[in-house]
Amino acid sequence: MFCRTSAEYFGFEKTETVLHTGNNVEDWINFVNESEHRFGAFVDRYKPGWVSIEKTFQELKHQWYIETAFLSGGLCETESAKKIIALGLDAVPYIVEEMKIVGGHWFGFLEIIIGDGPEIPEESRGKIKEINQIWLDWIAEWLN
Length: 144
What we know:
The chain has helices at about 5-10, 25-40, 55-65, 80-85, 90-100, 105-115, 130-144; strands spanning about 1-5, 20. The two termini are about 25 Å apart. α3 runs antiparallel to α4. With about 140 residues, the protein is mainly alpha-helical. The chain is globular and about 40 Å long.
C-alpha cells in the first residue's frame, strides 16, 4: 500500500494527494500511468527519442550519491531518489546492477517501485550486505 502526495513527491508545483492501494506491479503501473495523465509527464521520466533510460539513471544515481553522502535516513526521499522512482520498472535493471557492483541501500528503491520484496530474517536486519544478497536472490526469481 502506497500513499504519496504525488505532485509534491514527483516534483510538480501542483499538489494533489493520490492514494495507491494496489499490491502488485500491474496496479503500480496503472497508478503511475494515471498520475502521468493527471499531472503531465514526470520530471526526467524516460521519453523515447529523448535521453536513454540508462543515461538518465546514471545521472540521477550520481546526483543521489551526492545528496545522500551524509544522510542516515530518508535515502529514498531526496529529489534524485524521487526521479529514480518515477522511472518505474525501467530503472529496475540498473538498480540491480548497482546493487551487484556497489551494494548500499538500493533495495529501498526496489521495494517502492515493485511494491513487494523478500522477507528479511531478523538476524539479517541492519546488515546491508546480507540484505542486498537477499534482495538480489529474490529479484532474480521475480524477474524469471
